[in-house]
Specification:
This protein is α/β, with parallel strands linked by helices. It has a single domain, classed as Rossmann fold (3-Layer(aba) Sandwich). 35% of the residues lie in helices and 20% in strands. The strands form two sheets. A seven-stranded mixed sheet has the order 5-2-1-6-7-9-8, with helices on both faces. The protein has a two-stranded antiparallel ribbon with strand order 3-4. Helix 1 runs parallel beside helix 6 and helix 6 runs antiparallel to helix 7.
Length: 181
């Protein structure tokens, strides 16, 4: 069973985080909501509070097959400026693991110097990401082991692509059909 860490920082975009968690769990992926804070409590950008499953310091990143970064502000900024997360992203890339980011969160991949040659993000945010290869014409970009997406409205498409990457075409089709997507 694939294992995924969905990083949760205060100010995360709720739709992006919870769509990913929900859809991956429907696909029987072992998903952990990992709080970047020392607290298990995380506050979303639009006032939705949730309890993460585990804190950053407690999570065993070496066991994760993928790390997912939801966007939202200031959540993506917290991710981008976290040196400890940046180090885990570098280690994951070196170990050929999958990295995924949506909306403003490709900023964290760029800050950690792990973003691929092609990506997408929230329109207008590419200047903050500050990386060549921005593709404004796709909702989801897969560049090797790096998967990026544009924003809240593309969260379900993004999450389904993560299912395809982790579980294969059959599970992707099954989940997609069940969601009436």
């Amino acid at each position: 069973m694939a294992k995924v860490a969905v990083m949760m920082a205060d100010g995360f975009e709720e739709i992006e985080a919870l769509s990913v968690v929900d859809i991956l769990r429907r696909a029987d992926v072992d998903v952990s909501m990992v709080s970047l804070n020392n607290s298990i409590e995380v506050q979303g950008a639009h006032g939705v509070s949730l309890k993460a499953d585990i804190t950053f310091d407690e999570y065993e990143f070496k066991n994760a097959d993928m790390i997912v970064l939801p966007g939202g502000l200031p959540g993506a900024e917290h991710l981008a400026k976290s040196h400890k997360l940046g180090q885990k992203l570098k280690e994951a890339k070196a170990d050929n693991k999958k990295l995924a980011a949506i909306c403003a969160a490709p900023w964290a991949l760029s800050s950690a110097e792990v973003l691929g040659s092609e990506y997408t993000c929230y329109p207008g945010f590419e200047a903050t990401v500050n990386h060549t290869g921005y593709n404004p014409n796709k909702n989801v970009v897969v560049d090797g082991n790096i998967i990026t997406s544009r924003g809240p409205a593309t969260a379900m498409e993004f999450a389904l692509e993560l299912v395809k990457e982790l579980c294969g075409e059959q599970k992707y089709s099954q989940i997609k059909s069940g969601l009436l997507f």
